[in-house]
Amino acid sequence: MTNAQDNSFIEPTIQFVIDRIDRQRARQADFPHITKGGKWVYTEDGVWTGGFWTGLQWLAYKETKDEKFLLEAERLTQRLLPRASDEVNHDLGFMFYPTAVVGWRLTGKDEYRAAAVRAAESLAKQFNKDAGFIPGWGFFGGQNWAGSVLIDTLMNLPLLVWAAQNGGSNELLDVVYRHTETALRNHQRKDGSVYHVYVFDEKTGAPMRGDTYQGKAPESAWSRGQGWAVAGLSMLADMTGRAEYVAAAERVAAFIESQLKDSFIPKWDYAVTGDDEPLDSSAGAISAYGLIRLAGVTKNDRYLQLARSILDALSAQCLASSEAESILAHATADLPHGLGIDESTGYGDYYFLKALLALRDATSGKSNTH
């Protein structure tokens, strides 16, 4: 890392985020999902994004030690706990790692640890043993997704690794290793990029084709998907020590770096080039977090420098206006289906703060937390 002046944006931006979390916390609302016209659309049960807003409360409490954030974090975590038994939900890691796992670490409440282990077991039960993967969404949007594997699922596997180390079965690790092997064998392309979706025969596991749901085209590189890949693989590499995960994460990181030559804020898909194409600040935030985790594993400051450049650009160009309810503007949730275009997302806000805190820790010599 270079001199401290290069990082002068970090502390003021963290404070901006904490202030914005506090302002939204005071509403005592349901779970913010994505914005519409700068205003949050809320969900009652948290769908798949409730863990991000709740996780921001835990991060704010950890950062400030202010009890008001603890109270809100616990209120929302309690509302999510029944979801630990979800039977068709490949996003249980997104829901329970930022909430129950972190809550257990900060409070010692075994109720949280037990719920997180239960969520991990529920996720593992969805594993197709014959085919070697956890499918995506089950039945979603009128389609059968039982043979479809999303790159996003890599981000949910750290919950299984954690659970195996904190009261869960060691068989959870077998699910992690087999699913990741399937993903790396099929999702990752020669240039290091990844398919958003890969479709398999749900009975035999025979690979059929690469595909996408939120990207421009099956063979394009949906930018948030690249972020999920580098972050998920880097976290798994850190938690398991597996060299093949490090190598795969480095290939994704090299692809991301090759795409950010003109701007450090990704467009919604790396295959689009027009100046009028929407950005996806959430892809930048997620990618930055993954790059910082990868720097911690490899001790390669190149990844830290790229993450710093992304976060600096996001801080300069993408903070939500004073009238907005969110943190990070200019995200794109799902352009092909017309959702959240040039808006804000719960995951973008969450990983923005996660990445800022991780960058601060990395540049001050502290180790990143899982």
Automatic annotation (TrEMBL):
It comes from the Bacteria. One of its GO terms (molecular function) is hydrolase activity. Pfam families: Glyco_hydro_88 (PF07470). Keywords: Hydrolase. Belongs to the glycosyl hydrolase 88 family. This is Glycoside hydrolase family 88 protein.
